[in-house]
Predict the 3D structure of the following.
Amino acid sequence: MEAHRSYERFEQGQHVAAGGELPHHAQMAALAVALIACLLAVATFFSNEALKEVITGETHGATSHAQLESNRVKIDIAKANASLLRVLGATLPARYEAAAKAREHETRLADHLRPADAHLNEEIKADRSEVDHANSQHLAFELAEVAFEVGIVLASISIIARRRWLLGASGAAALAGVALLALGLQFA
């Protein structure tokens, strides 16, 4: 019986030395660190995926823009050729026929490329929208990562300092991280 009382006195002494903290504070803080670290891993994964979407969207947009510019150059070249042949064909009848064919070619090319250009413009707008969306997601996930990292640091410090309020602040940072993670997932 005396050993049991000694152990209780030891626990009470530890409790008082810890500034009134619970004896299992370290275990609770370690559990909080582990849980927040799991959430940090999830936020990091989603952040990386959103960044991949940004890069892919930018690549698709650049490809569409390059095709659009190529089509515009083709139209400009056809117009320039037709204008040149009109000038040259004004004096000789054989060249007049070549100028007429060049105008036809210009019209045919422009008529053929206009729908493609309209489609490419739509693709560029869609890609821009996807990139903006993924950028918003990425920002939310990165802010969630920061909140989780702060939560881990505060929980770790609470073990060393034996202060419950630090563990509470860690929980608040983790809740902010969860809210930001949910916000990022809402963008999806």
